[in-house]
Write a sequence for this structure.
């Protein structure tokens, strides 16, 4: 898709891959129906896009509904069909580099507590934010000039650490509780009691009704 609200390149951008909402969070089916899963995915993605500020947000997707959602939240859209997650992120990073972007912060879209993604970018090398089980990579900050090979999936945190070492890049592991909590399985819906989530997310997770 063509240029969006952020046509001028910024030194750093936040890339947020988002899959089709109609296919999101299938593993939550024991707890939520398809409409509720779609609403939850939208609400969490909106939280992540808001957490990108003041950096420009770029949504990486292959779904027109997601593209409209992204544009409605002021994000640039990079349409990357038929590439899979790793290929789509690699292509979005390549496009960012071609626009003069020096660094990207890549964030999953299912982080209901997300805040201050810009803080992940304040390091010259690679910063990795693992999930709370230290298995997946919820957020990563990488210079676009590096030929970093993205490897999302089970145990991606380990592989991304190894990739930074392979490239000889300084590596920082950032333990950030607000970015470490993703919602993928039914057990993930049991957020900490003091969790700061919006009304819709809280309602969908069974904490209180939507006003």
């Amino acid at each position: 898709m063509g240029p969006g609200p952020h046509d001028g390149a910024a030194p750093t951008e936040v890339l947020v891959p988002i899959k089709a909402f109609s296919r999101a969070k299938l593993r939550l089916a024991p707890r939520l129906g398809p409409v509720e899963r779609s609403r939850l995915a939208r609400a969490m993605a909106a939280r992540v896009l808001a957490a990108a500020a003041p950096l420009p947000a770029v949504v990486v997707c292959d779904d027109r509904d997601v593209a409209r959602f992204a544009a409605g939240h002021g994000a640039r859209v990079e349409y990357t069909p038929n590439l899979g997650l790793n290929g789509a992120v690699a292509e979005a990073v390549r496009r960012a580099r071609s626009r003069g972007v020096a660094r990207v912060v890549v964030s999953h879209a299912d982080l209901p507590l997300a805040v201050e993604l810009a803080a992940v970018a304040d390091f010259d090398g690679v910063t990795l934010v693992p999930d709370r089980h230290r298995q997946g990579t919820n957020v990563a900050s990488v210079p676009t000039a590096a030929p970093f090979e993205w490897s999302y999936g089970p145990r991606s945190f380990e592989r991304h650490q190894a990739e930074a070492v392979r490239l000889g890049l300084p590596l920082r592991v950032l333990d950030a509780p607000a970015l470490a909590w993703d919602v993928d399985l039914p057990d993930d819906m049991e957020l900490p009691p003091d969790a700061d989530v919006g009304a819709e997310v809280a309602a969908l997770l069974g904490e209180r009704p939507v006003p």
